[in-house]
Amino acid sequence: MSNAPKKLLVIDDDADIREVVTMLFEHRGFEVEALADGIDAVKLTKDYDVILLDLNMPVFDGERLADYWSLTDPEMLKRVIVLSGYSRFARGRPLPAFATVRKPFNPEELVEVVERCVAANDA
Predict the structure, then answer these.
(1) Whole-prediction pTM value?
(2) What's the Cα-to-Cα distance from 66 to each of 20, 29, 51, 75, rounded to whole Å?
(3) Residue 65 pLDDT exceeds 70
């Protein structure tokens, strides 16, 4: 296992959420990048250890992005944590992601889920 910082991507249309997540994880040594909509994440040029994905965004929502990745890069979904103010299931079906964290989230809970995701994908 390398000592390189873990890379986290947050995709959320809420600027406050992007800022809170960035501060929370940069403080823990993560390299954090943020995007405001799923359309910006269709062609990622980097690999991320964890992707925090908001379900409800105006242009290209998290469910559509997860569907796209399930067709183009299903392995990526093992590193996705869905952030949702809605029920655990989008339109009544489970999303193929590592986990779902409800908004408003508890920062300690989010950190714990992100660390579990990193550990599971480092194994």
Answers:
(1) 0.92
(2) 23, 27, 11, 11
(3) yes
